[in-house]
Amino acid sequence: MDITVTVNGEPHRRTIEPRLLLVHLLRDDLGLTGTHWGCDTSNCGTCVVWLDDVPVKSCTVLAAMADGKRVRTVEDLGHGGALDPVQQGFVACHGIQCGFCTPGMLMTARWLLNHDPDPSEAVIREAISGQLCRCTGYENIVRSVRWAAEHPDGAPA
Questions:
Q1: Where are the alpha helices (H) located in the chain, listed in sequence order?
Q2: Nearest CA among 51, 64, 59 for reference residue 16
Q3: Which terminus of the chain has fewer Cβ atoms in its 10 Å neighbourhood, N or C?
């Protein structure tokens, strides 16, 4: 089937198998490997992207469902060589360990801060509850999101 999807602001027209998952379209066809592929069961959350500005787990979304829609991936967070404040927070607060869960965490955190610029620790924990991190124990991830909330324009130059 033929689909047209706008990924990170760029339109792409592709002929796909109806069973193709969005994560595979992004990684294998478009070369956007920042979106990680972990479990295929929607449990780990490493594959979170935005579909029309809503976070989704791309390992359980068919690429056909993205036809005519906008997808935003982790590659689109930073602009002009500058990291997004969420990315800066993960660096500043050691929210990155092995890095496998990081793309999904970053996309979820950015969405959260876009909708709640000053979330409590409890709200942050709820927002990331659909994602697994086996390295950090979540403490540094929560600190990273709080850092981004406290520095909405990023780190001072």
A1: 22-24, 85-92, 102-115, 121-127, 139-150
A2: 64
A3: C
- The span from the CA of 146 to the CA of 148, in Å, is 5
Which DSSP helix (H) or strand (E) runs through 57?
strand 54-57
Torsion 27-102-73-124 (CA) sign? positive
Contacts of 5 (CB under 8 A, 6+ apart): 11, 12, 14, 25, 63, 66, 67, 68, 69, 70, 71
Residue 111 has pLDDT above 90, yes or no: yes
pLDDT digits (tens, 9 = 90+) for 87-96: 999 999 999 9
Query: What are 50's strand-pairing partners?
Result: 55, 72
pLDDT at 157: 58
**Contacts (Cβ under 8 Å, ≥6 apart) of 30:** 7, 12
Q: Quick: pLDDT tens for 7-36.
A: 999 999 999 999 999 999 999 999 999 999
Residue 93: predicted pLDDT = 96
